Amino acid sequence: MSNNPVSRRRFLAVVAALAAAPQGALVAAPQSRQPNIVFVFADQMRFSMMSCMKGAAGAGGDPENVATPNLDRLAREGVLFTHAVSNMPVCSACRTALLTGKFTHATTDRLTDHANTFPSILKRQGYTNGYIGKWHMSPKEHNREVGDSRQFVKPENRVGWDYFAGFECAHRYFDGTYYVDNDKTPVKIPAGSYEPAVQTDLAISFIRRHSQQPFACFLAWGPPHNPYEPPKDFDAHKSGQVQLRANVPQDMEVEARKYIALYAGQVESLDAQMGRLLAALDELAIADNTIVYFSSDHGDMLCSQYHQRNQHGAGYKRRPWDESIRVPGILRWPQRLSGAQRNDMLLGSVDLMPTLLALAGAPVPQDVQGHDLSGCILRKESPPDAAMLEQYAPGNTAYGSPWRGIRTAQYLYAISGHANNGAWLLYDMEKDPFQLKNLVGDSDYAAIQKQLHTRLCDWRKSTGDDNDMQKRFRSFQSKPEKDVQDD
Question: Are 362 and 121 in contact (CB under 8 A)?
Answer without folding.
Answer: yes
